[in-house]
Specification:
alpha/beta, Rossmann fold, ProC C-terminal domain-like fold, 2 domains, 8-stranded mixed β-sheet, elongated, binds NADPH dihydro-nicotinamide-adenine-dinucleotide phosphate, binds (2S)-3,4-dihydro-2H-pyrrole-2-carboxylic acid, proline biosynthesis, 6-PGluconate_DH-like_C_sf, Pyrroline-COOH_reductase
């Protein structure tokens, strides 16, 4: 998909912006077209040194120059940041507004930024930094195909994209894929600790865990087998894996994941009300 490059401004230079901007530049998006603002200078300096994008401590300055504004602050700060943009950025309704914040609904942004905005909500994740992100997207009915293609291409540059039907689905995607890297890191850390407890030093334990995670993920992507069948391929009858899997199943791993995802969805819904 070829799209016309646009000037894109990120408001907030935290974890997620660092990942997306890093991934975009690495995938060939011109750093000349990327602007980032943040109140403290440390993160801006990092972006400037590594990626040579434009940086500023002034949200209004970067937002005014851009065709696309990406809101990348914590949900708690969104109202305040939007208020400032609404008051001080000329022609806001001509710009495409993208938000990556969890929870907050498009309807709320219309209250914050004015009823005439056009908006896409994206739910990315931090592996965008290494080009392996998973981003969910949903647009309001004012966004045209050109806007959708532009944002799809930008986020395809940092991984995979999935348009979802509505904001309820985005909450679920966020609870699985947005938060998901944290679940996988938690699980990987637990395996690392298990190996360390049996005598491996932490570095070697980490190396074996992360390479195994990578191999399993790549196999899952490459294979047409179900995840269940891939698991069975490893689980020799009467063998060692069966004993390990028995432990996970006895602890009801499916139930644990279902509870974790539900809890995260619920928090997205709470944030929609709170912020
Ligand atoms: N982290 C993740 O995995 C994901 C996060 N998200 C969403 O992305 C958004 C950002 O999250 P994340 O990057 O983790 O958060 P961070 O806290 O890492 O980043 C937020 C950034 O916003 C900056 N900031 C604070 N106040 C302002 C302001 N008034 N104007 C401009 N910038 C400001 C902060 O600067 P300073 O530190 O200097 O105060 C900080 O650098 C959230 O809404 C979250 O829901 C979505 C998907 C995944
Ligand atoms: O924890 C959060 O609220 C954000 C959204 C998904 C990942 N981080």
């Amino acid at each position: 998909m070829t799209t016309t490059p646009r000037k894109i401004a990120f408001i907030g230079a935290g974890n997620m912006t660092q990942s997306i901007v890093g991934g975009m530049v690495r995938s060939g998006y011109s750093n000349e077209l990327i602007y980032v603002s943040n109140p403290s200078v440390g993160k801006l300096q990092l972006l400037q040194d590594k990626l040579k994008v434009h940086t500023s401590q002034d949200n209004i300055q970067v937002a005014t120059q851009a065709d696309v504004i990406v809101l990348a602050v914590k949900p708690q700060l969104m109202a305040q940041v939007c208020q400032q943009l609404r008051e001080q950025v000329p022609n806001l309704s001509d710009k495409l507004i993208v938000t990556i914040a969890a929870g907050i609904r498009i309807e709320k942004y219309r209250q914050y930024l004015g009823d005439s905005i056009r908006m896409i909500r994206v739910m990315p994740n931090t592996p965008s930094l290494v080009g392996q992100g998973m981003s969910g997207l949903v647009a309001d009915d004012r966004v045209d195909q050109t806007d959708q293609d532009f944002i799809t291409a930008a986020f395809n540059g940092v991984g995979a994209t999935l348009w979802v039907a509505d904001e309820d689905q985005l909450d679920i995607l966020g609870a699985v894929a947005g938060s998901g890297p944290a679940y996988f890191f938690e699980f990987m850390a637990s395996l690392q600790k298990a190996a360390a407890a049996l005598g491996f030093d932490a570095d070697k334990a980490r190396a074996m865990v992360q390479q195994t995670a990578l191999g399993a993920a790549e196999m899952a992507i490459a294979s047409e087998l179900s995840l269940e069948d891939l698991r069975k391929q490893v689980t020799s009858k009467g063998g060692s894996t069966a004993k390990g899997i028995e432990v996970y199943q006895a602890a009801e791993i499916d139930k644990i994941s279902a509870q974790a995802v539900k809890a995260a969805v619920q928090r997205n819904q709470e944030m929609a009300k709170l912020f």
